[in-house]
User: What shape does this take?
Amino acid sequence: MGEKKYDSLYSLHMKEEVYCAQLCTTDLGKERRSKFYEAVKEEYHNNWIVDNLPASMRLEDELHETDQYYDGFPIGFMEGDDAYVYNHANIAISYHEVESEEGKYRVVGFQVEPFSISHDFENKAKGWNKDQKFTEVDISNPMLSCQKTSAGEETDKMHTDWAMVQGSGQQKAAGVILFTYDVTWVSSDLHWASRWDIYLSMGDNMDSEVHWISILNSVLIVLVLTAMIACILIRALRKDLMRYNAVPTDEEKAEEREEFGWKLVHADVFRPPASHPMLLAVCCGTGAQLICMSMITVFFAAIGFLSPAYRGGLVMGLLMFYVLFGGVAGYVTARLYKTFKGKMWQRATLLTAFLYPGMFFGMFFILDLASWTYGSSDAVPFWIMLVVVLLWFCVSTPLVFLGSYFGYKKDAIEFPVNTSNIPRQIPEQPWFMNMFLTCFIGGILPFGACFVELFFIMSSIWAAWYYYMFGFLLIVFVILLITCAEITLLFCYFQLCAENYNWWWRSFMTGGSAGFWVFLYSVWYFKGLGINTFATYLLYFGYMSAVSIGIFLITGLTGLTSCLWFNKKIYASIKVD
Assistant: This one.
């Protein structure tokens, strides 16, 4: 939420109230009227900020009067097939006086009550001219045009004479529209430090209940999965270890007792992956960097250092922590690649420094060009792009090389059994151990543990909600990692029992399949946004693809490291001749 800010024409001065002040006129014309009609129909919003405080909106109907503390307010409304523009705003600013400094005040509230009024005014051609210069507009009868005061008095004109943008033809649409506004100042006892509380507590009871249900659902999944693993693995492993470590009798020696199960692959289980070991090491290093970035950012957000009150603070926190944890990526890649007996360590380090960041930056640059083309305030200026590139090349990349240097200085990971020179032949595998099937199933439970929280996160990104329950997010993130570790560990045991020792890539893919399910969920979520332009398709699926790849790397590393720990434990517990 760090979009660029633009100064508006609205003029606000501390404790100076105005009534029906003229802002400007605009002639929509036929083409602009059609675009505005579509914008109203698609519920575009005005996003106003006063002293870094977003505008809240008051809604009224025949029975209720409510306040909505979301990001902005609509530019108009639909009445059947007719579209009307909100061309008058009652702006109410809450303030209190600074106790220690007399005559100084602080803004603690910002509320906008929008109206649509068909103003009566002379010289309708005045306003914005061809040179984009503003000229004054004379209102012929301000009391007739502005019949709703900030005190809340109403007349029938407010409901019968709206400013129509475009309609079905039964009524005449306004050609030139006059924009006006009121400003009222309301004294408040609210402390400046608490002025964001009303935004963050909007729907708090419902959201808290949903979050708690989500947490209970996630904990239940973890408990069921843990109990299943305890029943299957502990009992099966105990039985296997008793059989493998039992002293054979004379009859069994004579008959040369036949072994079966995961012990048979002890000489191959820690064999480096046959395909693309460097890529696997790079993916693990990047996943470690992303895990550290995510955990630290969510932790600081949970304790209050990062908040929606700081515009763009969360994105900047993610970026800075990603850059600073470049050394972790280099170290993990180097240590794992050395364990795989890799020799091209320079190439592995370069890939760690440039593969994922380069892919993400290239995607971000293309999406930013699309934003620039459409004139979006979300477009990042060139100088900020340059700062990001400097952080990448001057901070992150040197840290990757530094971490890689220390990683290669360390010894390779030690394993409890030796690896043979000749690979063992893998028997034919059962159908249910197909890699695509295990990856497809392996991501369901981790995704099920976090999809409710994912809905709130995506709503804060794409639907202008405020997300602030970072404590819940931290818990759900930990539960996601635990679930990924347990489900991947279970599939790894079944794979070894089938005498298939190619577990490196499969464990990474099984854990990382949670990212695939996140992308599928984003496709389903997109249907509810009602977006139908190419630019929004490009922006939405571009960013969600990048996020899904990041989740794939995080959960993939979790699955691989859990399987590595599990395999070292079980093979250290058996006697091998």
About this structure: Residues 124-134, 148-160, 168-172, 252-257 have pLDDT under 50 and may be disordered. The two ends are 62 Å apart (CA to CA). Residues 204-243+276-571 form one domain. The chain is about 50% helix and 10% strand.
